[in-house]
Amino acid sequence: MAEFSPMMQQYFNVKEQHKDAILFFRIGDFYEMFFEDAKTASRELEITLTGKECGQEERAPMCGIPFHAVDNYVSKLIEKGYKVAICEQLEDPKLTKGMVKRDVIRIVTPGTVIESNMLDEKKNNYIMSVFKRGVYFGIAICDISTGDFYSTKIVENNNFATLLDEIAKFRTS
Question: What is the pLDDT of residues 25-74, one digit of tens each?
């Protein structure tokens, strides 16, 4: 079996660090998605699934979107509960010999959206963290789009119902 192309090897190195996200991999004027990410994005965004030469006998499943429309597509995936990792070109391809360096510059989840066009202005966009030590809980809740932050601890015994009540109050993203 032939080796994957250098660009596809670079893609796999980045994807390895972001297995739980759909990876938007910048290539020129497009963000491209490959393999399972491409299949998912193609289905969820209703865009064409094609293939790309990747150094193997079969073409890699691929779909892409124009870079200038990224917010629209990320918004649609976030609304459906997906996590998106945006991988940018870190060098000017015109000035680079060989492979352009790329890395993830942003990870977007339903709770980390800050763009006003992706938010519902009538409700908060909370993200929550729950910490457990022994039988006690600590909770931190934040809306990073507004800066609202709350925290509490639950220290009474038989406190799981209290924890569930606190979680339900905030309707986290």
Answer: 999 999 999 999 999 999 999 999 998 776 667 778 999 999 999 999 99
- Cβ–Cβ < 8 Å for 127, 149: no
Q: What is the DSSP-derived secondary structure letter of residue 121?
A: T
Q: Kindly state whether residues 79 and 140 are assigned to the same domain.
A: no
Instruction: List phi, psi (to 5°) of 124.
Output: -75, 160
Q: Is the residue at 122 inside a domain?
A: no
Contact of 137 with 154, CB cutoff 8 Å? yes
For residue 101, give its domain range: 6-109
Longest dimension (CA), the chain: 64
| pLDDT of amino acid 96 | 84
67 and 14 within one domain: yes
What confidence tier does 118 reach under pLDDT thresholds 50, 70, 90? confident
Cα 160 from chain centroid? 30
pTM here?
A: 0.76
